Amino acid sequence: MPEATPWIVEVYSTSEGKQPFTEWLNSLKDKQGVDKILLRIRRIQLGNLGDHKFVADDVFELRIKFGSGYRVYFGRVENRLILISCGGDKSSQTRDIQSAIEYWKDYRSQDNG
């Protein structure tokens, strides 16, 4: 069986220095949910992307089956995975995807690939 390729995981920062992913994660009151999200990120660093799908404009969605069904949106540049934003559940998914697309465009405009 081939070995998984590790990913370098980075957190997107706006040009003003805000980190939407970090702000969202810190705002969660569901500490078990936070632990599940952080565990998922650790697995990604080891090469296991798990349940994910392409959504639009080079943005992908990690689906975390816990609590309200957390979503983490990311982009990829070579072997780097850039966490850009998150959403809580299906009810905000459309809005969250639009935000993620805008954040990804901003990331790319900052000469990041």
Question: What does the model show?
Answer:
This protein is of the alpha+beta class and 113 residues long. The chain has a single domain (8-109), classed as 2-Layer Sandwich (YaeB-like fold), CATH 3.30.2310.20. 35% of the residues lie in helices and 27% in strands. The protein has a five-stranded mixed β-sheet. Strand 4 and strand 5 (80-87) form a beta hairpin. The longest helix is centred in the last third of the chain and has 17 residues, at 93-109. The model has no long low-confidence stretch (mean pLDDT 89).
Q: H/E series, N to C? A: EHHEEEEH
Number of helices: 3
User: What is the helix fraction of residues, given as a range?
Assistant: 25-40%
The CATH architecture name reads 2-Layer Sandwich
pLDDT averaged residue by residue: 89
Concise account of the structure shown:
This protein is an alpha+beta fold.
Task: Identify the notable features of this structure and list them briefly.
YaeB-like fold; 113 residues; alpha+beta; five-stranded mixed beta sheet; 27% strand; 5 strands; 3 helices
